[in-house]
Amino acid sequence: MINATRDMKNNILFLVVLTFLLVHHVSGQTSFDPDKKFLEARDLALEGKREEAISLGLKIVEQYPGYSDVWILLGRVNAWEGRYDSASVYFEKAIEQSPDYADAYNGYLDNLFWGEQYEKAQEVLARAEKQFGSNLPQGLTYRKSRLYYYREEYEEALDIAENLYEKNADIDGLLSYVTNLKRHTRNSAVGMTADYDSFQGEITPWNTYSLYARTRLGFMGSVIARATHSYRFEATGTQYEIDAYPSLGKNSYAYVNVGFSNASFFPEYRFGTSIYWSLPKAFEFDIGYRHLKFSEITHILTASVGKYTGNWWLNLRANHVPSSSGGSISGNLQARYYFKGAEDYLMVQFSTGVSPDEEDRDFQSQLLDSYRGRVGYQQLWTPRWMGYAFLGYSYDELSPGNYRPNLNISIGTEFRF
Description:
Elements: H1 2-30, H2 34-46, H3 50-63, H4 68-80, H5 84-97, H6 102-114, H7 118-132, H8 138-150, H9 154-166, H10 174-185, E1 189-198, E2 206-216, E3 222-232, E4 235-245, E5 252-261, E6 269-279, E7 283-293, E8 297-309, E9 312-321, E10 328-338, E11 345-352, E12 369-380, E13 385-399, E14 402-416
Antiparallel strand pairs: 1-2, 1-14, 2-3, 3-4, 4-5, 5-6, 6-7, 7-8, 8-9, 9-10, 10-11, 11-12, 12-13, 13-14
Helix pairs in contact: 2-3, 2-4, 3-4, 4-5, 4-6, 5-6, 6-7, 6-8, 7-8, 8-9, 9-10
InterPro entries: Beta-barrel_YaiO, TPR-like_helical_dom_sf, TPR_rpt, Ycf3/AcsC/BcsC/TPR_MFPF
Keywords: Repeat, TPR repeat
Organism: Echinicola rosea
């Protein structure tokens, strides 16, 4: 009897130990560090291995269903793949787990914007505003502006975006976005500019005046009519031009210019066009063509790349004039520092060669070399009045060893209505 009891105890002890070892073995196979696995899944997604990232993310939330960042990652990866409905399911899970987590709403709204589900985006935004009240995070406030933008309610979008800019909101591409909204909200205006060029006794000074009017005309976007009258080389003449900026979608627009003149120092006629793209990370790019008819026709190819970073806008432009001898290239580097809005900035510019878009320059003389520096300031004085002043100095080579200095003063003002 004693032996039987002892055997039973031994069997029970054996079963207990065996069960412990099995449980420990299974636990060792299924437990893991969720933070480490989340970082692995995120890296996979950023490396383009999105299906692997999704698979790993699902394994994480299977064991840790309250891990909101993983649900958000699953939502964003599915959104990148264009599976907007599936992404919405994951974002709903993230909000369910952490209803006061702004990143979940940010990702959800981005997904709905990409899927053009604007009514649903309005509902999600309303939920976020109810959750956060008057303390709506800047990221969500920015997306509120974006929703107005997608609905083509540009004035409302601009009011929110400018308020964020004035508060120095840390939002990538905010200045680029505000500048783009300005293009949509500028309705009508009239303005004038005056340029004075002194050549330090080499030739008589030039005086150039320009009057323009701007309005919006449907699909043509902003349309500008301009007349430029100038006194140069002991003669006077006037150039007439029309510019248009038709929209090509949410992230692209075109520039078209046509003009003619009765003056020998302006082109007999001119034509130009460019296409502009807004790119990720606050970059922008354009490529275009200019056609100038003097005594001979001049063809110019032009392209630029720009970048918004903080309060700065940096732009590098190159122009190429092809010819049988290989042609010539001119370059222009421009930097603007913006102050309280997209209309108030300090500008610094350095260039070599002559750009076809600089009408105060002597493009017809076919300068061998030209170097120019320019500084200026523009400010919106009131909601209706804007003014600017620029000072430039150029050093142009007319023939080998023969240089002509040029001091340029340019001022202008604009009234909006």
